[in-house]
Design a protein that fits this description.
Layout lengths: L13 H16 L1 H4 L20 E3 L20 E2 L25 E4 L2 E5 L22 E5 L6 E8 L13 E9 L2 E11 L2 E10 L2 E11 L6 E9 L4 E8 L5 E7 L2 H5 L13 E8 L10 E11 L1 E5 L11 E3 L7 E3 L2 E7 L20 E3 L9 H6 L1 E4 L18 E5 L4 E10 L8 E2 L2 E2 L2 E2 L4 E2 L7 E10 L4 E4 L7 E9 L7 E6 L3 E6 L3 E10 L7 E3 L9 E2 L7 E8 L10 E7 L3 E2 L1 E10 L3 E2 L21 E2 L4
Parallel strand pairs: 16-17, 31-38, 32-39
Antiparallel strand pairs: 1-15, 2-5, 3-4, 4-15, 5-14, 6-11, 6-15, 7-8, 7-14, 8-9, 9-10, 11-12, 12-13, 16-30, 18-19, 19-22, 20-21, 21-30, 22-29, 23-28, 23-30, 24-27, 25-26, 25-29, 31-33, 33-36, 34-37, 35-36, 37-39, 40-41
Amino acid sequence: MLTLRKFTFRKLRTLDFRWAILSWLLPLLLPSQLNAQCSSISTINCADVPKAIPYVLTFDGTEGGLTDGAGIETGFTMVDPPSARLAVDDHVFNSSVPGYEPGNLSVSGGSLIITSTKGIMFSQPSASTETNSQINALGAGFELGTNVIRIKTTISNPDFSGSAGNNSQQGGIWFGLDEDNYVKLAIAKTANTTARVQLFVEENALNVGDLSITGITDINSKTFELFLDIDPVNESVIGYYSIDGGVRVLVGQADLPSAFISGEDHDANVGTANISYGGIFTTQRRAAADQTFDLAFNDFEVRPVYKVNFQTASLTPPSGYAIDYGKGFGTSQVDGKDYGWRELGTTTNKDISAEAAGNNNGAERNRLGNYAGSTPQVQLNGTLIHFQGNHIGTWSAQPRGNAEHQWEIATGNGTFDVTVSVGDVSNSSDSKHAAVIEGISAIDLLDAAVSTGQVSAGRVIVEVSDGILTVTGLGGINSKINYIEVCPTDAGVNNGTLSFTPNPLGVDVGVGGINTGSSTLAASSGTPSVQMIIPPDDDDGWLTLPASPALGSNSFEVNGTGFTLADNPTSSVVASAAGYAPAVLPVNLNITSAPVIADQSFAVDAGSPNTTVVGTIIATDDVA
C-alpha cells in the first residue's frame, strides 16, 4: 500500500528532480534489494539469516554462513552487535558488523573453536562495568511457531585453567533478540577444573532470572551438553545440562518476555517474518586481556521436541508438555504427532483412562496434595500412569488391567533422543519400575520396596524404523510412567544387548524335591550392572532368582513341591540393564519321580576314625 506524503516543491534541475523522485520510490518498490545486507548483524544477505527448523550444524566447513579466520564456513548467519566494544578488543574486522571477529574463530576437526575476548552481553551498567561488549555471539534467525523447540550444543573438555582467576569466564548457548534481551545457558568457571551451569535471563537490560547448579568438578575431562527448551505458547524456557551423554540435569525454568517469542524485523521488510536468534558464545570477562581460552563446540542444533506428561485429565500439564491421561493411540497429538496407548505387542488402541467404560478409576494418578502449588518438576514427578495394570489382581476384569499396555508416538522414522521417568512418589512399594524404548532399557530397574517414594529418569538414543516409537514396561512389575521427552537427533544409538546361554533353561527336579539350574548372562559390550525379575504372570513360586544377579553364570533354584509327573511347569526370567536390550530366559521344569532307594546295609569296624567311608547309597529315578 502506498502512503500519501506532503511535499514542498522548489525549483530543481531536471537531474536533481528525477533523483528525488527515484529516491522516494525505490524503498517502496524494491525493499528487499535495498535491505539485502544486514550491516549490523551479518556480512551475508539478510535473506540468508533466517533458517528453517530443524537446523543442525556439525561444523564440517560446508554449511554456509559467516566464515572463520581461514575463510571456512561456520554455518552461523549472524552475530549480535555490541553497543560498545572494549578498547582491548578493538581490532575491528568489519566496522559495519562490530560483533564479528573471524580471527577468533576456527572450524577444525568437526568443531567450531572460539577464542574468548573480554566482552560480555550482560548489561546493567548501574551494577557493573564493561558491559554490552560481547564479541562473537554467533547465531542464526528462527521463526517460532507454537511447538516447543530445543536449542542444544555439545562442548568437549572445557578448559578454563589457562585463563587466570575466577573472573566469570564462560561459554554456552543463547536465545533472544539482542544484548539486552536474551536468555543464556553457560558453563561458568569457579576454579581451574570446577564450574557451575547458569541459566540467566535479561530483559530490557535488567536481570529477570538467574539460576545455577554449582560444584561441577573435573570439567576439563567431561563432555557437556547444554539444552534450552523454548515453549512459545507458555512463553517459558527450561535449561538443562548433561555430562558424558547421561541423563539431563535440570538447571531451572523461567518465564520469557513475549518479545523473545514474537521476534523482530531483522531486514526492515514487512514482507518477511519476524525472527528470534539462537547461537553460541564465549567470554573471559574480567580476566586480563592475555588470559584467553579456547572453547570447542562440537555441534549446534535447533529441533522440535515432543514432551508428554502422564497425569489425570483435570490437571494443567507443566509448561511445554502435552497431556496424556490414558486415552487410546491417535486420540491426542503433540506437534502433529499421534500418541496414546495400545495393548502390548499389538496395534489395538486401548483406552485405560477413567473415561473408559468398565474402568472403576482409570490407570492415571495424581500423587500430589497441592499440584497447582508445586514446581513444574515436582508436578512431572508426582503424576503417573500404570503400564502394567494386569499385575494388579483387582483390575483384571477392567480395560486398564485385562492386558499389559504400551505407549506409542508416531515420530516417523529416524533416530531419537528419549528421556523417560518412571516411579511413584507415594509410599506404594509394590512395584519394580522399568521402561523399555524401542527394545532398549532406559533405566536400571527401580525397586519401590528399596526406593519407596522415588522416581528415576533415564535417557537412551534409539532408532525408529516403522514410524512409531514404542515404550513398554518389559522387565518391570507394576511399572508406572511419569513423563517422556522425544527429540530427533543424529547421535549414535544405544544398541547393547544382553543374552542368556543356554536359552531356554531346562531343569530336572523330583516330585517334592529341590534342584538348581544355571545359565550364563552376557553383554554385547561393557560390564553393566544387571537386575532380574520373574514376571508376575509367570511366577508360581517354584523358581527363585539368584541373590546377586550379575554377568556370568547365574544359578536358579527350582522346587518341585506340589507337582506331579503329569505337570510341565514353565516360567521366565527377564534380565535388564540401562542402555541394553533385555534378555528373556524361559525356564522349563521337568518333573521326575522321587528317587527310589533300595534296602541296603553297611558295616564299619569299631574304632574307625571320623570321615571313614562306610558305603555308597544307591538310588534310582526315571531321569535318563
